[in-house]
Amino acid sequence: MGVNQVLRLLNATPFEVRRFQGPPQHREQLSRLKVVHLTDLHFGRVTPIEVQREAVEIANGEKPDLVVITGDFVCHSHRYLDALIAELSRLNAPTIGVLGNHDYWSGEKEVIWALKKAGVEVLRNQWTEMRVRGEKVQVVGLDDAYTGHGDVEQAVKGLRKHIASIGLSHIAEEADALWEKGVPLVLSGHTHGGQITVARLNEIALGRIFGHRYIHGLYGSGANARRSKGSVYVNAGVGAAIIPLRIGEKGRREVVVFELGAEPTVIHKHHGEQEAYPTRLHHNRYLRYRPIRISKKRA
User: Fold this and answer.
1) Residue 205 and residue 212 in contact, taking contact as beta carbons nearer than 8 Å
2) Strands 33-38 and 253-260, how do they pair?
3) Which residues of 115-137 are buried (b: 16+ CB within 10 A; e: fewer)?
4) Using CA atoms, how far apart are residues 40 and 53, in angstroms rounded to an integer?
5) What are residue 67's phi and psi, to 5 degrees?
6) Low-confidence ranges of the chain (pLDDT < 70)
7) 222-257 burial, b for 16+ CB within 10 Å, e for fewer?
8) What pTM value is reported for the model?
9) Phi and psi, residue 79, nearest 5°
């Protein structure tokens, strides 16, 4: 059995389509806007092209008004940019994305070139306004914070708070700052949900070791969603960067659908808001050493 056949067997994990309505603020600003969220496509050898192709087909099948992709389009190189262009060109809705750490490690200029060729608008610490069926929505794109490119102040400069807005950030922890700037819903990725989610291994690895407060799923800034400043969704993603294994229900590949403006009784949410994972003391030490790790990865 060849390497590609082994990878296909390891990647034979079903997709999960998870559905949510938007935050209460959006019900006052929008009648209905369907957003499909993809992340961590990781075009590369670790993930067979059939996986990204299926994600695109699922997204198109939802007939969204907007598709957003929150970073890590590539895995470790530019060798698969032609495949990226071919697959993402098939998306049937306006598509907006932000970069992730792997895009910078691989070389962001070439990744951006490929995305533009595929028809994906890339936001780098900026926002854009869309009009769908006469309704306006502002999409705020925060550049990758993991590699030190995120700038919240620049990203929200001139944002109008009376118009509905959503934020895109590869790293979920940046949501706290975006909430303070009036962005009530932030979509993110990066963690892959932990990929191996049995016996809470994902929480141990991502929470205790790497210090992530938001690991997978929907989180809010308060226990009561009506009093919270905002919500963040951490998508488990489509591809893989190191190992192709996805084990456990929460580790499945996923496509997430948000029906912004929908009433709570209309959409059956996959789950409610979760409590953030407790911050660990070593998290600050990890952050201090992150620039060194980033420099080595880029080299």
Assistant:
1) no
2) antiparallel
3) beebebebbbbbbeebebeebbb
4) 14
5) -115, 130
6) 1-13, 194-212, 221-228, 247-250, 265-272, 277-299
7) eeebeebbbbbbbbbbbbbbeebebebebbbbbbbb
8) 0.86
9) -65, -20
Closest CA to 111 of 81, 141, 91: 81
Q: 259 to each of 27, 64, 211, how far by Cα in Å?
A: 10, 9, 31
Predicted local confidence at residue 226, as pLDDT: 45
How many angstroms separate the CA atoms of 29 and 261, rounded?
A: 7
Give the integer Cα–Cα distance in Å for 164 and 23: 10
Contacts for 275-284: CB closer than 8 Å, 24+ residues apart = 275/219, 275/223, 276/213, 276/214, 276/219, 277/203, 277/206, 277/207, 277/212, 277/213, 277/214, 277/215, 278/207, 278/213, 279/211, 279/213, 280/207, 280/208, 280/211, 282/211, 283/211
